[in-house]
Sequence to fold (224 residues):
Amino acid sequence: DVVLTQTPPTLSATIGQSVSISCRSSQSLLHSNGNTYLHWLLQRPGQSPQLLIYLVSRLESGVPNRFSGSGSGTDFTLKISGVEAEDLGVYYCVQGTHAPPTFGGGTKLELK
Amino acid sequence: VQLVESGGGLVQPGKSLKLSCSASGFTFSSYGMHWIRQAPGKGLDWVAYISSSSGTVYADAVKGRFTISRDNAKNTLYLQLNSLKSEDTAIYYCARGTWDYWGQGTLVTVSS
Fold:
């Protein structure tokens, strides 16, 4: 199975600070069809996960544009340009290129 | 779009349980669907997937014990859990195959 390694496991930020989360894959996530099925989710405390970014860099409808995704192959990054209080929670990357789907271990974003 | 899970509860080890996920607001039959679980205080753990044509894939940890199925006439996804173990204790979420919609989850507790 593909292993996704997220760093850091915990991130402390102040409101307005820009932060980045890394997701590294044990193998390339480039599918033979040319798509890269790497997505980012946010799980706020007590809530279900929600999709933020799909296919590496595409912003899900309704998600603020302070969120952005980048990367290719095995290295991917989620950036938040100006953290807001509502952004606190646990961020997960998930891959769907190789069966079975796998999740990263999560990155908890908390207020400093 | 709405996904609503039900059927969770307290069950003894070795017993069975059937979860349901009622879907609305989209053409259910056109989408693959996932079951994902989250043990208390832990990260996300993919469980099973069923395609729009009812092909299935399972995580190794549940293969042979859990069965995913769907009833397109009822717009409902199911997960049959057999031979339950304490380590199956978790919140079980259903999610659309594109990861863009998740239910609120249903708690399964396996304990004597």
User: Anything to note?
Assistant: Residues 68 and 99 of chain A are 26 Å apart (CA to CA).
